[in-house]
């Protein structure tokens, strides 16, 4: 499919999805959001892809939030629908994705933009990045999971502070908080993220998929993550990748999981 607001590139089994509305600081309109959903699902279905990187086009913004112009006249019902459909994409398509997803944050990650990054499995940010949930300054609250995922990552007190002040934090503070996993220079962001992808992809895709499911289970209400782990652990046995990984170890060679 041709995307209007995304760049979609596959190289070395890594799919880079770049949100491409730089003149609007990559603000997420409904069309762009639907394209991200489609692009990630296509990559999951594509056996040539083993890992996904989401980033923004330009050197200023990852995503500066949901497109404010689009929801300015919304009714309560429309707001509910927007938030509910957004939750579905972030939870089912991104957070629960069976292939690793890394957010390469290259500038402003605000509101819905930070919420996309929070749903990804790992976050790398360039030193010029600014992250925040400024929704209360607009008279709304984070509507794409920010009130839930931010405290899960950085703790309740810090999340309350960020959400109530609406302030932006820089990549140093984000790193200290554990909001991002790695900080790089602006120039090195994509190379660093691709190197990280390479490292992850030297491991078994099947094991990665099972591990993602187990970690996510820890945050799902009513789900016993330990039981999920027992099941997912046992599912690894008798797979080709388990045989490859263990026999490579015993034969003192690197496993080939491609
Ligand atoms: N929506 C729409 N347009 C945007 C947005 C946005 N979020 N962010 C930037 N733009 C546009 C600007 O309007 C401007 O367009 P134009 O040139 O046509 O006037 C262009 O991008 C460039 O922006 P600026 O001129 O403002 O650039 P600056 O460098 O001066 O400032 C900022 C950069 C500080 C990032 C500034 O643009 C800003 O504050 N943007 C808004 C940030 C924000 O509040 N984001 C949160 C939005 S709300 C949200 O994400 C809710 C998510 C939950 C969804 C569920 C809702 C129910």
What does the secondary structure layout of this molecule look like, with pairings?
Layout: E1 6-11, E2 14-19, H1 30-45, E3 51-56, E4 61-63, H2 68-71, H3 76-95, E5 101-105, E6 108-110, H4 112-119, E7 122-126, E8 130-132, H5 146-154, H6 156-165, E9 168-170, H7 171-177, E10 182-184, H8 189-201, H9 205-217, H10 225-236, H11 240-250
Parallel strand pairs: 2-3, 3-5, 4-6, 5-7, 6-8, 7-10
Antiparallel strand pairs: 1-2, 8-9
Helix pairs in contact: 1-3, 4-5, 5-6, 9-10
The structure holds octanoyl-coenzyme A.
Bound molecules: octanoyl-coenzyme A
Taking all Cα atoms into account, the compactness measure Rg is 19 Å
Query: Which strand order does the major sheet show?
Result: 1-2-3-5-7-10
Low-confidence stretches: none
Proportion of residues in extended strands? 15-25%
Compute the number of helices: 11
The largest pleated sheet is described as:
6 strands, mixed
The CATH superfamily title of the largest domain: 2-enoyl-CoA Hydratase, Chain A, domain 1
Structure description:
The chain is of the alpha/beta class. It folds into 2 domains: 196 residues, 2-enoyl-CoA Hydratase, Chain A, domain 1 (Alpha-Beta Complex), CATH 3.90.226; 46 residues. The chain is built from 11 helices and 10 strands. The strands form 2 sheets. The protein has a 6-stranded mixed beta sheet, with helices on both faces. Strands 4-6-8-9 form a 4-stranded mixed beta sheet. β1 and β2 form a beta hairpin. α1 packs parallel to α3, α4 crosses α5 and α5 crosses α6. The chain is globular, with a radius of gyration of 19 Å. 37% of the residues are buried. The model has no long low-confidence stretch (mean pLDDT 97). Octanoyl-coenzyme A (CO8) binds next to α2, α3 and β6. The site of octanoyl-coenzyme A has 25 residues, from α2, α3 and β6.
